[in-house]
Structure formats: structure tokens, C-alpha cells
From TrEMBL:
Main location: membrane
Transmembrane segments: 12-31, 43-67, 87-107, 147-165, 172-196, 216-241, 253-277, 303-333, 345-365, 385-403, 423-444
InterPro entries registered for this protein in UniProt: Na/ntran_symport, SNS_sf, YocR/YhdH-like
Subcellular localization(s) per the UniProt record: Membrane
Family assignment from sequence similarity: Belongs to the sodium:neurotransmitter symporter (SNF) (TC 2.A.22) family.
Single GO term (MF): symporter activity
Protein name per its UniProtKB record: Transporter
Membrane association type: Multi-pass membrane protein
Organism field: Dethiosulfovibrio salsuginis
Amino acid sequence: MKAESSRGEWSSKIGFILAAAGSAIGLGSIWRFPYITGQSGGAVFVLVYLFLVFTIGISLMMAEIVIGKKGRLNAVGSFRRLGGKHWGLVGWIGVIAAFVILSYYGVIGGWTMAYVLKSFTGLISTSGSGEVAKIFEAFISDGKQMLFYQGLFMAATVIVVFRGVSGGIERLCTFCMPALFILMILLIGRALTLPGAMEGVVFFLKPDFSKLSGEVVLSAMGQAFFSLSLGIGAMVIYGSYLPDKTDIPKASLQICFLTFMISLMAGLIIFPSLFAFGMEPGAGAGLTFITLPVVFAKMPGGVLWAASFFVLFFFAALTSSVSLLEVVVSYMIDSLGWDRKKATILLGVLISVVGIPSALSQGAVTINVFGVSFLDAADFFASNLLMPAGGFLTAVFIGWVAYSAGFDGITGGGAVPFRHKKLWMFILRFIAPVCILVIFIAGLKW
Ligand code: PHE
């Protein structure tokens, strides 16, 4: 075990919030949220997601950050230090989930990089939505391009993680997040003024409760975990670099709010445009990539808007993939005493190799598992099963086992006031475990 002083620490409070929000905001909000919303009936899904983010999501985020702050180690080590050896299992679920998620995250991350280049090569001038969809199809069924861009994205992730937490990650977030925010607001303006846009707003924001089902709720839970980076120990790690006197509830609220906002904004760009162009909301994993180029084409200087957007989208994905790799790498550093460089490169390569079937499963080769593509299956397994399982155990851990460490950590030993301790504990003890179990049972139709 390494001495605490050899671990990095955030250079400022805002550095932590940016990095944690950077981990949260990524493909989850801009790629996954719109397409799962489209497949899950629209506004009803959004409503359940909203509810889960601000009840279970925020409570678990606080729990994870506290575990890191008190444990001062990676997820496995922090759980062990606070709860004894067998609790390390929770951290392990996280390490496995991070491994699986990153394997396909790299594939979609690669799409964002490819689209930066494609912005300049005809994607934007072909304004017909059918054309754009064809370009996308051709792209994802080209195995060579898939592997090339996946490798490129993974290489970028490795380089940032290589340089350590505060050095690489903090700096990356400081510029990109505000820029992304501003650009997305402009895009909302464009999307909402397209003829026929209102129908999309209705689909996205006016709930049709007849579409509510166990499956929809399970997907919303998976999306809440995925988008907030919960249940896999990512926030444990970021918390482990926190100075003692941090207002964790406030930071968590800010992170949840920002993530929800970006998701909402992504939806307000994609659904109005989709309906305006007569496209299908249930189109699946390509939704963002098929819709946005058509919107850009309707803007003066569209090529530049598109390229800037995809650059920022890429950075948003990168600040998330970095935290996924960090989950796995920091375990190897803390527990097995590996050197950071060795761990980063080795794991980066290994995860990329494991991601190859996902990369090829989008059309290059038919690789189906349980009737869905390999990528979708890996995503379902990690987001809807592993992450909520990790979250369930985290809630039980702080709610029933290590609650005094939880109280002490959340108030910085009494230095930070927190008025809602009882509510927080109630959610962790009862609401979160029960809801997660019920949603599992209803969603999987046991
Ligand atoms: N929250 C990230 C996103 O939305 C994905 C992620 C999940 C990152 C878990 C870290 C841990 O893109």
C-alpha cells in the first residue's frame, strides 16, 4: 500500500467538480441518452430518469465520494479499508464493469473522432437525411475504419491517464465543458426553429404513461448509473483525491444537475430535428450521428459548426473514458504495486482487444448475443446489471455497515454542515436497495 502523500490531490475544488462532471458528462448524455429515450417511448423515460438521478443517483454519488475520501484508495482498496476484506468485492464488480464499458466506449468514442474528419469530407453538404444515414451505415460496417478509430480513441485515453489525475484530466475539462455548453445552446436554437420541431418536443417532454413498463424503468435506471458514472467506483477514486474539507453534497448536486442538463439539451437538439426531418426516434445507437449532421447542414457555415461540435463531443467522451481506465489502472497501482505507465499501457491494449468484437459488431461482421449486437449486449450487461448491482452494494455498505464513516466523511469530521443526513441515510438504507431490486425484477421479468 502506498503512503497517502504519494497520491495526487486536486489542485482546487473546482478541479474536482470539473473532473467528476467530466467523468459523468460524455457519451452517456449525448449519445446514449437520446437513443435510449427514443427506444423507450420518450418523455416517460425522461421522467423516470429525472426521478432516479435526483434520488438514488445523487445519494449514491455522495456515498461513493465519501468512501473514496475516507478510504483514500482505489475502489477495491477503499471498500476493504472501511469494511473488511470481503467488501473489496464491490470494488471488483466496478473494475470488471469499467473494463467492459471501456471496451465498447472506445468504439463510440472513435466515432466522434471520425466525425470530426467527416465533417470536412462531404458529410455536411449532403443535407438529405437519407444520405447522412447511408454514410453512417457505410462507416460502421467498415471494419477497418472501426478498428482504426477505436484504437485512436483508446490511444488518446491512455495518453491522458498516463499523465496522472490532476495533470491531465483537470486541465482538459476546464476549457471543453463550458465550450460544449455554449455550442449546444446554439444548436438548440437551431433545432427548435425548424419547421415541425414541436412534435419532437412533445415526444421528448410530454409523457405518455401508457408507455411505462418494467423495461422502460430498468433502462432509465441503467441510464442513470451510466450517465452519472455510478456503481463502478469511478467516483470513489475521484473522491480519494479530495482534500478533507469538501462540501460533498453540494458538489454531488452540481454534478448531477450538470449531467441532467447536458442530457436534456442533447434531447432538445435531437428530437425536434428528428421529427422535423421525418426520421425515426427508435433508430438505435446511431441516432446522434445520423441526426446532427442534418441539423448542421441547415446552418450557415455548417461544416465548421459540425467540426467544432464533434471535437468537443470527443473531448467530453475522453474525460469519461479516462475515468473508466483510471478505475482499472488505479487498482493495479494501489493493490499490485504496478507502475502507472506500465499499468496504463498494458490495460489500454488489453481493453482495446476485448473491444474488437464490439467494434466489428455494428455491421462489419454479425456478432449477436441474445438477439442484439455484441456492443449492445455488453452495454446491457454493464449498465443495466453490473452498475446497479455495484450501486446496490454501495448503498447497503454505507447505509448498514460503514455508516459512521459515511457520516464522518460527509461532514469532514464536523467541518462541513449537512442538513439532510437523515434523508440521505434513509435513501441509502431503504429506498435505493429496494428500488434497485424491484426494478431488476420488473425489468428482467423474472
Ligand atoms: N458517465 C460516462 C458517460 O456518460 C460513462 C462512465 C460510466 C464513465 C462509468 C465512468 C464511469 O459517458
